[in-house]
UniProtKB/TrEMBL annotation:
One of its GO terms (biological process) is folic acid-containing compound biosynthetic process. ATP binds at residues 3-7, 133-141. One of its GO terms (molecular function) is metal ion binding. Gene3D superfamilies: NagB/RpiA/CoA transferase-like. InterPro entries: FTHF_cligase, FTHF_cligase-like_sf, NagB/RpiA_transferase-like. Substrate binds at residue 54. Its cofactor is Mg(2+). It is an enzyme of class 6 (ligase). Keywords: ATP-binding, Ligase, Magnesium, Metal-binding, Nucleotide-binding. It comes from the Bacteria. This is 5-formyltetrahydrofolate cyclo-ligase. Belongs to the 5-formyltetrahydrofolate cyclo-ligase family. It comes from Peptoanaerobacter stomatis.
């Protein structure tokens, strides 16, 4: 099965999960993240704002801020079509961006040194049998990781 077909099949299955189950499973997953040493010891964390049937991250982002973590979120630079990161302060500073995904409003973007990111938690469609991430097909994260190997 090729990546495109795998992506389509997995998304169809994932999209059939109820919102209630997504929230329950998200809490389990994110509690496991909270319990890891790498999370506990990281101050600067790159997260993502969930959409659709992804692991729900909005409450987790707020919880991280209360725990005094520096949270950075991705946004797509419209002039270059490249994913960059911005400091997250509040959901009031967010708007729907690429594919309707919440990202920091242009006027609220605060640059952050990518080399200072200690932990990256990314969205994905699934992982293949070799444990490689399969995303949504645009390569935004792949290019970001390639450019920032020291923080991956």
């Amino acid at each position: 099965m090729n990546k495109k077909q795998m992506r389509k099949d997995i998304l169809a299955i994932r999209d059939s999960i109820s919102k209630e189950d997504i929230l329950k499973k998200s809490e389990i997953i994110l509690n496991k993240v909270k319990a890891t040493d790498i999370f506990k010891n990281s101050k600067n964390i790159m997260l993502f704002t969930s959409f659709g049937s992804e692991v729900y991250t909005h409450d987790f982002i707020i919880w991280c801020k209360r725990e005094d973590k520096n949270i950075v979120l991705p946004y797509i630079d419209k002039s270059t079509d490249i994913m960059k990161i911005s400091v997250f302060n509040s959901f009031d500073d967010m708007k729907a961006g690429y594919k309707g995904i919440l990202e920091v409003k242009e006027e609220c973007i605060q640059s952050f040194d990518e080399k200072k990111v200690e932990l990256i938690i990314t969205p994905c469609v699934c992982y293949d049998f070799n444990k490689y991430r399969i995303g949504y097909g645009k390569g935004f994260y792949d290019r970001f990781f390639f450019k920032n190997t020291e923080c991956v």
